[in-house]
């Protein structure tokens, strides 16, 4: 009944645009109709492909003085049909990435104009704390903080509301506090293990806070704040993240015994395995050598792209990759276990304080840790982002 409706609407759209020239035509989420042709079932004659063919025909028929400019947006440019991207159609591409620290600061100023902020709230500090946030995330952050302030009966948004909003956006809703003593102690050692191993490994981001308050699926959380925008990451930093990620499991094994390790490290193991695999196959940071070992299409998150891509990897190379990934993780795990063994007294003290307060700030954590051992200088004396910008 509706066959050809999409193509008909495209014709009507461009006829209307030509009648109103000069005119701008904006197509949002163009990947909905502009996906690569020939990937569907039915011999390429489905409704979506007819709509795309009509769009290609209309754009190809423009004369130089038609006065119609077509602009489109998508967050999946890799799956667009090649005919759409050729010269004469969408021949100019503008990539809009996630904002850097300066961009986040300016975006936060826009979204905080209509909100009353406490005088202690520093927009630049919030920008430092939110790497990887998009403009929509930052708008959501300020709205969540305003809602929390209203619920708590405050007439201004304070740092407490902003901190809680960041935690909620990143990790999920706050859960019910733990009452079971055994589980709480185990989670406390797990989180302190993360914090200690990360802080004592050169190259890791500083600890921002350690908490036993559950959020989402996590029973406890250790937060880190990057010293600078993570656009370029060194091998030392990636390896330090693996050591820090394994700190929780290492603490469980060393302190409670191998038979008492829990399922709490499942998310950590997924993250560190992904980092180690990327170090080997994408960044060339292993003994195999500095070359890309897997085609980008094979690693793509798009199912169709992965189906179309041919994986030409040999069995020997796949085995070498697995061995390299395991070697990176095994060496990191040994370092993590050594950190736990060598700092047992300090860890016990930190867990005691954490059990009492339920949340430790980064400064409180480092103050206690520095009483027992030296902290690597590059994990403490990093230049703040504000100094780097002014320099």
Can you describe this structure?
- 53% of the residues lie in helices and 6% in strands.
- The protein is mainly alpha-helical and 391 residues long.
- It has three domains: 5-79, Rossmann fold; 101-171, Orthogonal Bundle (Helicase, Ruva Protein, domain 3), CATH 1.10.8; 181-390, Peptidase M41 (Methane Monooxygenase Hydroxylase, Chain G, domain 1).
- A three-stranded antiparallel β-sheet has the order 4-3-5. A two-stranded parallel ribbon has the order 1-2.
- Helix 8 crosses helix 14, helix 9 (235-256) runs antiparallel to helix 10 (266-281) and helix 10 crosses helix 13 (315-342).
List keywords for this structure.
mainly alpha, Rossmann fold, Helicase, Ruva Protein, domain 3, Methane Monooxygenase Hydroxylase, Chain G, domain 1, 3 domains, three-stranded antiparallel β-sheet, 53% helix, P-loop_NTPase, hydrolase, protease
Q: Could you report the average pLDDT, rounded to the nearest whole number?
A: 83
Low-confidence stretches: 383-391
CATH level 4 superfamily of the largest domain? Peptidase M41
> What overall geometry do the principal axes of the alpha carbons give?
globular
Largest sheet: 3 strands, antiparallel
Assigned CATH class of the largest domain:
Mainly Alpha
Percent range for β-strand residues: 5-15%
Structural class by SSE content? mainly alpha
End-to-end C-alpha gap: 65 Å
For the record, the count of structural domains works out to 3
CATH topology term of the largest domain: Methane Monooxygenase Hydroxylase, Chain G, domain 1
- What gyration radius follows from the Cα positions, in whole Å? 26 Å
* Tally of helical segments: 16
Strand count: 5
CATH structural architecture of the largest domain: Up-down Bundle
Order of helices and strands: HEHHEHHHHHEEHHHHHHEHH
Report helical residue fraction: 40-55%
Strands side by side in the biggest sheet = 4-3-5
Family: Belongs to the AAA ATPase family.
Pfam family, one: Peptidase_M41
Keywords: ATP-binding, Hydrolase, Nucleotide-binding, Protease
Domain Peptidase M41: 178-368
């Amino acid at each position: 009944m509706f066959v050809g409706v999409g193509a008909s609407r495209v014709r009507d759209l461009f006829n209307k645009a030509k009648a109103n020239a000069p005119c701008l035509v904006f197509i949002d989420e163009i990947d909905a109709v502009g996906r690569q042709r020939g990937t569907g079932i039915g011999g390429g004659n489905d409704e979506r492909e007819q709509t795309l063919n009509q769009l290609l025909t209309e754009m190809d028929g423009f004369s130089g003085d038609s006065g119609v400019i077509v602009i489109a947006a998508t967050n999946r440019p890799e799956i667009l049909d090649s005919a759409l991207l050729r010269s004469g159609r969408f021949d100019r591409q503008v990539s809009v990435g996630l904002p850097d620290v300066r961009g986040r600061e300016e975006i936060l100023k826009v979204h905080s104009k209509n909100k009353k902020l406490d005088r202690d709230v520093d927009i630049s500090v919030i920008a430092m704390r939110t790497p990887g946030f998009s403009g929509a995330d930052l708008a959501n952050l300020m709205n969540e903080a305003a809602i929390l302030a209203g619920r708590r009966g405050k007439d201004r948004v304070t740092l407490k509301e902003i901190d809680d909003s960041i935690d909620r956006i990143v990790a999920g809703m706050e859960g019910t506090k733990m009452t079971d003593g055994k589980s709480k102690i185990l989670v406390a050692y797990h989180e302190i293990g993360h914090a200690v191993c990360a802080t004592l490994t050169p190259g890791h981001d500083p600890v921002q806070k350690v908490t036993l308050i559950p959020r989402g699926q996590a029973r406890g959380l250790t937060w880190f704040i990057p010293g600078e925008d993570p656009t370029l990451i060194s091998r030392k930093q990636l390896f330090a993240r693996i050591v820090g990620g394994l700190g929780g499991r290492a603490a469980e094994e060393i302190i409670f015994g191998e038979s008492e390790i829990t399922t709490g490290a499942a998310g950590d193991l997924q993250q560190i395995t992904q980092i180690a695999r990327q170090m080997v196959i994408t960044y060339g940071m292993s003994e195999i050598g500095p070359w890309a070992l897997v085609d980008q299409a094979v690693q793509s998150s798009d199912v169709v792209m992965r189906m179309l891509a041919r994986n030409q990897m040999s069995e020997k190379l796949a085995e070498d990759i697995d061995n390299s990934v395991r070697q990176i993780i095994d060496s990191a795990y040994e370092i993590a276990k050594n950190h736990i063994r060598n700092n047992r007294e300090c860890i016990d003290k930190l867990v005691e304080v954490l059990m009492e307060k339920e949340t430790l700030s980064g400064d409180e954590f480092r103050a206690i840790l520095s009483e027992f051992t030296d902290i690597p200088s590059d994990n403490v004396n990093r230049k703040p982002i504000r100094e780097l910008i002014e320099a």
